[in-house]
Amino acid sequence: MSLDRLIEKIAELQNPTVAGLDPKLDYIPAFIKSAAFQQYGETLEGAAAALLEFNKGLIDELCGIVPAVKPQCAYYEMYGWPGVKALHDTIAYAHKKGMFVITDGKRNDIGTTMEAYAAAHLGSVAVGQTNCVPFGGDALTVNAYLGSDGVNPLLKTCEQEDKGIFVLVKTSNPSSGELQDRMLEQGGSLYAAMGELCEHWGQALPGRHGYSGVGAVVGATYPQQLGELRVKLPHTFFLVPGYGAQGGAAKDVAPAFDANGCGAVVNASRSILCAWQKTGAAQQDYAKAAAREAVRMRDEIRAEIGSIRV
Amino acid sequence: MSLDRLIEKIAELQNPTVAGLDPKLDYIPAFIKSAAFQQYGETLEGAAAALLEFNKGLIDELCGIVPAVKPQCAYYEMYGWPGVKALHDTIAYAHKKGMFVITDGKRNDIGTTMEAYAAAHLGSVAVGQTNCVPFGGDALTVNAYLGSDGVNPLLKTCEQEDKGIFVLVKTSNPSSGELQDRMLEQGGSLYAAMGELCEHWGQALPGRHGYSGVGAVVGATYPQQLGELRVKLPHTFFLVPGYGAQGGAAKDVAPAFDANGCGAVVNASRSILCAWQKTGAAQQDYAKAAAREAVRMRDEIRAEIGSIRV
Questions:
Q1: Cβ contacts (< 8 Å) between A74 and chain B: which residues?
Q2: What residues pair up with B139 in beta bridges, in sequence order?
């Protein structure tokens, strides 16, 4: 299903990375903000206009280098409904530029409510006789603490619409072990049990390249678990956060990949978005600085895994 | 912190229930939809206008009976950014009518991203020199699979803004046991461990009535676990879904309450929203039919727990 499209795009660009679009106002050059505030005032509309302009500039420079973007919903919701409109417009712009879009919402619920999230982020909704596309991402991150009732409604939408999901398995944060590392009476850890469920759910969405439409989020900050899970979950594609700002290095993410250099996509957000600040680039050069960092990251990871053969 | 305000409102109205605002278009009377579509067409804007009008009518009739509303984010996101604007406007309208608002988003993430969700749903955000309130709910539902890194940023906002959270502990759905009931090597179940973390996190937000600002979601469909957790988690206020359409009855929710009739708020969504359809009421009577069902539910639960003494 839809993770096939991601995998093929990764192979085409020979780049197994995704750029996280987490646009806090602090990361946005002053010239973009002042233009937006001049038009809309210091309002949520003004903030949203700055977010969208910032993202469009990044997408223009990244689309020939990076196969996918991952907008993080929180940073758009933080600017209210105008921010959420900027999320919609960002997804549409990335699609226009040929990029795959992973909506990072970590959504979770059950039954008809989860169907509503599936329609919102991956599908469409009927309004009278008209079919409308609310956000139209290609894949959605999902928290499956509620079990199959929270995942099955997504599988249906993924099958119909050629979309995919990524389920949180072992997250990149320091406290991820508080619950995820607990050992179960039956043997194995909670995150391993979640991983096995991903393999199970994925059977409903087999892919052309050996990986199903149900991926897993596994953090770069836990390379041992990454390698262990790569072996145990042969049909589960990994979304790997935690590279760069959170401390994961290229050698840490290498265990996420299979012998063909496939099986994972590595996310970086702040290291790309804030490259212009970190490298002391001119404001107007922010998108080109992001692209230079994206190339550096691609080459660093490719040096570990070689070429990507699909 | 803010769950005190909920508890006091429950005592004032002697009603330990919350009305879930999950407005699918199917639940909305035709006269509201046709007026909205006439103005905005069969578009997401048209759907959102119908949602808001439906909610306002409900809030007008419920605000003197029910202490709180719980809008479920999924049903607003399903109608795109115009739907999310309707969520904002619904929260503002409920506040104008004196109701407590629990935003049911089951949000989860870490660090600065969770800070963004906290600002979005419970706090405020700086845009230039101006402070803006994105959504302004009073409490937020939260999925804590990521551990303390996903909860601590919320505690800070709750303390500053007098707000609260509800953490998913034992959800109401049939498959909730797939992960939540797994027995841990150290003893006890995963949901019990999550409950203990709620008591721990809640220590940062002590309340005036014995309950902290960190509540727990525990389903009406598991009355035995409800009673067990009420004893084990004496400072954790419960949000109890699963009453009504999902099968939970008044006797099932009784174990969620303490000896003073306090300690929990029971949610019903479809049984209230769709009361006009279920009772064969006239379309124009939809909000009064909802109020009649809300009174029936209040009286049924109060018959089990007696008066609420705070």
A1: 107, 109, 113-114, 116-117, 120
A2: B102, B164
**Is the CB of A179 less than 8 angstroms away from the CB of B173?**
no
The answer to whether the CB atoms of B147 and A197 lie below 8 A apart is: no
Is the reported ipTM for this assembly greater than 0.90?
A: yes
d(CA A93, CA B159): 39
How far, in Å, CA of B167 to CA of B169, rounded? 6
pLDDT, tens only, B112-161: 999 999 999 999 999 999 999 999 999 999 999 999 999 999 999 999 99
Q: Extract the tokens encoding B170.
A: 């034992």
B106 carries an active-site annotation: yes
- pTM, 2 dp: 0.98
Size of interface A-B (CB pairs under 8 A): 240
Write the pLDDT tens digit of every residue in A201-235: 999 999 999 999 999 999 999 999 999 999 999 99
Domains of chain A from N-terminus onward:
2-302 (3.20.20.70)
- Pairwise CA distance, residues A289 & A285, whole Å: 6
Mean pLDDT of chain A: 96
Distance, CA of B302 to CA of B16 (rounded, Å): 8
- Report the alpha-carbon distance of residue B180 to residue B169 in Å, rounded: 8
Q: Which amino acid, B309?
A: R
Q: Measured in Å, how far apart are chain A's first and last C-alpha atoms?
A: 15
Region of residue B188 (phi > 0: left; psi between -120 and 50: alpha; otherwise: beta) = left
